[in-house]
DNA sequence: ACCACCATGTAACAGGTTACATGATTAA
DNA sequence: TTAATCATGTAACCTGTTACATGGTGGT
C-alpha cells in the first residue's frame, strides 16, 4: 500500500481531498465549503459528495469515523490519508488542459438567423446582467481576502466577467443596429 | 402530431437540428461541420452524433433516407421535420443560464499552497500559451467571415482568450515575485 | 507502401443531475 | 408557527467519453 503511484481521480475527488487537507470534515461540511469558498468554479450536487466520499475510503484515500451527537444527527468525519495526499498531489501536478467554452448561448448566437433579433438581444442582455452581478460579488470580496490563492481565482472570475460584459455590450449594440436597419 | 409543444432537447440535439436547418446531411457531415464551423464551442464525439441521430428520428424531429453509393460506403441522410423545427425553436428561445467556469485549473490554483510555485507557474503558462494560440486562430479567421452570427461567436472567443491571457500574465508575475521573495 | 478520407456504429465506462425520503433542533 | 440548519443518503436518469471494429477509395 502506498505504491499506487498513478491512481486516477476525478475533479470532484481532487477538490474534496483538497479540502480535507485542511482538516477532518463531514460530507455536509464539504458541501458547504464547496458552495462558499470555491463555489464560483466548482459546486457538485450534495448527492455527488455523499456518493464520492465512501469511494475515497474504499480506495484508501480517506478514512472515516462516526461521531455520535446528542442534539444533531450523527455524522461521518473524513480524513485524508497518505495515499490520498499522494493521489491529490499527482492530480494537482498534471498540466491542466484548456477546454473551449461549452456555453449553450454561443449555439443560440451561432444559429441567430433562426431567432428574432429581439430574442437574441434579450439572451445577450441576460448574460450581461449575470456577469455584472458576478463582477459585483467578486469586487465586494476581493480586498478582504487573507489567502493569496483564493485571491487569484477571484481575479480570474473578474477578468472573465469583464470580458463577458464587454462582449455582451458590443454584441447588443450590433444586434440593435441590425434591428433598426434590417438589410434583407 | 405536431402538438408536442414543450419537448425537451439536449444541447447536442439542438445543435444537430440547427445544422440540419441548412440542409440534408449525414452523421459524418454533421460531425465535420461541428468540428469546423462551431468547433470552438461545441464538439461532440462522433459516437455521440451517431447515437443521437436515430433518437431524433424516433422522436419525430428528423427523418432519414438511405443513399446507396458506388465507390463509397452507403450513408443515411437526415432531414429536419416540422416538429424538429418547433423543438429547436423553443430550445433557442429558452433564456440561457450562465454557468460558472468549471475549469480544473482554478482548483489547482485554489489549492496552490500544496504545489511548488514553479509547477503552478508552469500550469498558468500553459493556459496562456493555449489561449494565445486560440487568439491567433480566431484573429486569422475573423475578417473573412460572411455570416455575421458566426462572427459574433468568434468575437466571444477572442474576448475570452484575451481575458485569459491578461489573467495568466498577471498571475505569472505575482507567482514569480513570490518565488523571488518567499515570505514564510 | 502508407496514410487520409468516407461512413457507421457498439461496448464499456465516467461523471454528473434532480427529485425524493427522513427527521430533530433552533432561531425569528 | 414557520423556516433554516444539521445530516445522510437512494433511485432514476442524462449526457457524454474512449476504445474498438470494419473496410473500400484515392492521393503521394
Give a structural overview.
Chain A is mainly alpha-helical and 184 residues long. Chain A contains 7 helices and 2 strands. A two-stranded antiparallel sheet of chain A has the order 1-2. The N and C termini of chain A lie far apart (70 Å). The mean pLDDT of chain A is 91. At the A-B interface, helix 1, helix 4, helix 5, helix 6 and helix 7 of A face helix 1, helix 4, helix 5, helix 6 and helix 7 of B. Chain A binds a DNA duplex (28 and 28 nucleotides) through residues 10-12, 26-28, 44-48, 50-51, 69, 71-76.
Keywords, separated by commas or semicolons:
DNA-binding; two-stranded antiparallel sheet; mainly alpha; 184 residues; 7% strand
Overall average pLDDT of chain A: 91
Beginning-to-end CA distance, first to last residue of chain A:
70 Å
Secondary-structure-derived class of chain A: mainly alpha
So how many helices of chain A?
Answer: 7
Could you give a short account of the major beta sheet of chain A? 2 strands, antiparallel
Strand content of chain A is 5-15%
Give Rg of chain A in angstroms.
Answer: 22 Å
Helical amount of chain A? 55-70%
Uncertain parts of chain A: none
Rough outline of chain A: elongated
Strand arrangement in the largest pleated sheet of chain A? 1-2
Order of helices and strands of chain A: HHHEEHHHH
| Largest interface in this structure | A-B, 65 and 65 residues
Strands of chain A, total number: 2
Determine the oligomeric state from the structure.
homodimer
Amino acid at each position: 500500500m502506498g505504491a499506487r503511484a498513478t491512481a486516477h481521480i476525478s475533479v470532484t475527488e481532487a477538490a474534496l481531498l483538497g479540502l480535507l487537507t485542511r482538516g477532518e470534515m463531514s460530507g455536509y461540511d464539504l458541501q458547504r465549503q464547496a458552495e462558499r469558498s470555491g463555489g464560483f468554479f466548482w459546486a457538485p450536487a450534495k448527492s455527488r459528495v455523499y456518493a464520492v466520499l465512501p469511494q475515497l475510503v474504499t480506495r484508501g484515500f480517506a478514512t472515516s469515523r462516526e461521531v455520535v451527537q446528542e442534539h444533531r444527527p450523527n455524522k461521518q468525519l473524513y480524513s485524508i490519508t497518505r495515499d490520498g495526499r499522494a493521489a491529490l498531489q499527482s492530480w494537482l501536478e498534471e498540466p491542466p488542459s484548456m477546454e473551449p467554452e461549452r456555453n449553450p448561448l454561443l449555439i443560440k448566437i451561432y444559429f441567430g438567423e433562426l431567432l428574432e433579433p429581439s430574442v437574441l438581444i434579450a439572451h445577450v442582455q441576460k448574460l450581461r446582467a449575470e456577469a455584472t452581478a458576478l463582477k459585483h460579488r467578486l469586487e465586494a470580496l476581493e480586498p478582504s481576502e487573507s489567502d493569496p490563492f483564493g485571491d487569484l481565482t477571484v481575479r480570474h472570475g473578474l477578468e472573465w466577467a469583464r470580458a463577458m460584459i464587454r462582449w455582451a455590450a458590443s454584441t447588443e449594440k450590433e444586434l440593435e443596429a441590425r434591428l433598426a436597419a434590417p438589410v434583407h
